[in-house]
Design a protein that fits this description.
Largest interface: A-B, 48 and 50 residues
Strand order of the largest sheet of chain A: 1-3-2
Shape of chain A: globular
Largest sheet of chain A: 3 strands, antiparallel
Low-confidence stretches of chain A: 1-13
Strand content of chain A: under 5%
Number of helices of chain A: 9
Oligomer: homodimer
Structural class of chain A: mainly alpha
Chain lengths: 228, 228
DNA sequence: CCGCAACTGAATGTATCCAAAACATTGCGC
DNA sequence: GCGCAATGTTTTGGATACATTCAGTTGCGG
């Protein structure tokens, strides 16, 4: 499932520590902690049934990942992201999508392509029925599948890491304006087509541009939220 | 200087913890600990004059960054990288170089371009005189300058992070074979030219391909090392 | 003489404890 | 009555102590 940014080997059963880090990350990504407020160590300790030592180690790791920030002698708080932060994140992610598309084509199996095509059709169905939650779930899974198809664990791990930060925004349910969804579907159509033809150069650029447009849409939405 | 992967704000004086992480990272990158061997906590404790608690927190963070790996109940050891690992790392880095080149063009100042041209000329001089150490130092600085010119702290931080892992390899002095240096110089020439013309699309691709070739050269060298 | 098993020693992983710093509240002075 | 300061309480950060686990060594049996 989820591994540290560069975890490659290691078949060991997840240690208590790593477990805790993952739990905490999910807990934050799923928005159980409001951004900006102070995170009391004590409370989290009893919630996860661990003592302070492993919890503090986990907080340090999540701080290094960028999900939270540590204020000296004042504990941790969930990071709050400005529009510039979001843009920066998306730029890096789009770079990873670029390499993902490029190398996925040369390494992907026919079965994986079929699987992605299947997901694509399913997503299209959800799009037609305006089932947004399912639509975005499939969208995420398709992107992750292409990234994973590149057969590069370092890439997959970094991608997942950056995405966990962005996902916290809950932009997903709100990107319906201006028929962004329709555009996105068309872009996905091209992406799947390039993948089918194993046109790596093309796919890389398509995915890069796709993420750029997604970034623009998200930022436009956020700006609308900021001053309504 | 060096910040956590996503550190953006924070003007606080570096906390003891972050200090320790940086010290330890440098200590490892500078090859004071042989890869594969166990990292003795005790020894490091007295070397850095801290107790086990902060040291262990630092180890967890570095493990998340991928520099070391933690074996359950068997302590930490410095990661050993296979050729596949190296390729994976370079692929991700080349993706970051791609976005860096693309956005650097639209955001760079004329002064920064002039600065890079200056470094480029200096590097060329070192190349002609076969001053390898200086050559590679300038090479690093030029790449970092282009990445920084993209004006994206998230990108810069991630780039630095991945590079710290690669830098541990100490391949640099050995890439002289087959006139890789000459090829690299020509590629750099094109890169600086594209930057001058602010041709973002072109620069992105140039930097991507440049890193790919560098990866091939490094891997070829490493393969030669492995079975001589 | 070799191999397996058990025991011992060392080192990790976790929890508790103590000190220091920050925030809040209360009391005193103006 | 209001403001500032000092003290107390809460919380974080660091150290130490205890339990658990792994590896190495030694002894016994085949």
């Amino acid at each position: 499932m989820r591994a540290s940014v560069l975890r490659l080997v290691e078949n060991e059963p997840a240690s208590l520590h790593e477990d805790l880090v993952n739990q905490l990350r999910d807990f934050i990504v799923e928005d159980h902690l409001a951004p900006g407020i102070r995170v009391p160590e004590r409370e989290l300790c009893e919630r996860f049934n661990v003592s302070r030592t492993p919890l503090r180690e986990a907080l340090k790791v999540l701080a290094a990942e960028g999900l939270i920030e540590l204020l000296p002698n004042r504990g941790a708080r969930v990071r709050q992201f400005s529009e510039a932060d979001i843009r920066n994140l998306f730029e890096v992610i789009s770079g990873l999508d670029f390499v993902a598309g490029r190398f996925a084509c040369s390494r992907i199996t026919d079965e994986a392509i079929a699987e992605i095509e299947k997901m694509h059709l399913e997503m299209y169905a959800h799009y037609l029925r305006h089932e947004l939650a399912d639509y975005f779930r499939l969208n995420q899974r398709i992107h992750q599948a292409i990234v994973d198809a590149a057969g590069n664990p370092v890439l997959s791990a970094n991608y997942a890491n950056l995405n966990s930060v962005v996902r916290r925004l809950r932009y997903s349910a709100n990107l319906v304006g201006r028929d962004r969804l329709g555009d996105a579907m068309r872009e996905h159509e091209q992406i799947v087509d390039a993948l089918r033809r194993k046109a790596g150069d093309e796919l890389g650029m398509l995915m890069f541009e796709h993420m750029q447009r997604k970034c623009d849409a998200v930022c436009e939405y956020l700006r609308g939220q900021a001053n309504p």
